[in-house]
Amino acid sequence: MLLCLLFLWLPRVEKWRNMFQIGTLPTPSFPPSHSYYSKMWLLALSVPVLPGILIIVLSQYYHRANVRALCRRALGWALRLARGGSVCVKSTHAYVFSHCTHGNAQSVLEAFDGYDETHPSLCLGPQRGQVLDEVLRRVGPRCVLELGMHCGYSSIRMLRLLPPAGRLLTVEMDSSTAELGEELILVAGFKDSQFLVLACSSAEAIPALRPHLAPAHGDSSAEAIPALRPHLAPAHGDSSAEAIPALRPHLAPAHGDSVAFDLVLMDHDPQRYLPDLLAMEKERLLSPSGCHVLLVNRGQCGPALSDLMKYFNAWTENYSIVSEHRFMTEVFYHEDSCHARL
């Protein structure tokens, strides 16, 4: 725009200079070379501004979607700043409940993301969520523990990637948040048998988790035992009734993998990360064959994560760091001599 004005202005200046020279108008008070200096001043002014003008024009014509996204982020940041930093779980629940398609997990996640753009929220968000999705697809866990529910966003994100027989146990200290989060998980289309919400602190929940995992072991054997009867000879029907109860120990997987977690997401109080990890080791809740532990970093976990890293470096036979992101760290646990030191 500035360049166009420059080209329109130069001929006019030249015309005025010629009119002054032939005496059509009174001779101005400024020196005859004034128009020359005006041209040079305009040229000097336009040179540094020209790249910015070109970028704006190209952005409008070729990157309109990116410009709109940038403006939307700026507007969302301004709205979050105006609303303050307090997080309202009830407001999150009301927005998601009314802006999603019930029974559609992806629609529920998109409603969460839409709320997060303009309101303070504790949801993981799309960026952390993509990292979480990648880990679940790579690991393929059957049993997942989540510490810190935050209205159910990460719970829904993980449940949609678990296998049909997979199960999620999530712990949330605030009972109101746990209730609202559980409702949104049901709104997303998941069944009660696929997850369990415990409304208590992690310190209270971890020692009491094993009884909640035991039914999965019992159910699997209860389904397997009736399938054995067709393989038994009719003549031995009486003896099979005596043999079947003795089969249960042989149906339990080795090392108790059915009652241990393959993946743990820690997104609660960072000061509880290390104590809770030690408690899970003590209770043997981490799968001996391997458990992936995801540590969420929300920017206030510096000292807590530092202590964790020191612990991992001290016990490299049990822990190895798989990946480190600015907002999440993935650690792999496997049993070696861990229980001897506990």
Task: Walk me through what this model shows.
A seven-stranded mixed β-sheet has the order 3-2-1-4-5-7-6, with helices on both faces. The chain is α/β, with parallel strands linked by helices and 342 residues long. The chain has helices at residues 2-22, 34-62, 64-83, 89-99, 105-118, 125-139, 153-159, 175-187, 202-205, 210-224, 237-243, 248-251, 273-282, 302-314, 338-341; strands at residues 143-147, 167-172, 195-199, 263-266, 291-296, 319-324, 328-333. Strand 2 (167-172), helix 8 (175-187) and strand 3 (195-199) form a beta-alpha-beta unit. It folds into two domains: 2-23 and 32-62, no CATH class; 124-220 and 252-341, Rossmann fold (3-Layer(aba) Sandwich), CATH 3.40.50.150. The chain starts with a helix and ends with a helix. Residues 67-85 and 215-257 have low confidence and may be disordered. It has 15 helices and seven strands.
Kindly give the count of domains.
2
SS strand fraction? 5-15%
CATH class (first level) name of the largest domain:
Alpha Beta
Helix content: 40-55%
Backbone structural class: alpha/beta
Tell the overall outline.
Answer: globular
Q: Can you say what the CATH homologous superfamily of the largest domain is?
A: Vaccinia Virus protein VP39
Mean pLDDT: 74
Largest sheet: 7 strands, mixed
Gyration radius (Cα, Å) is: 33 Å
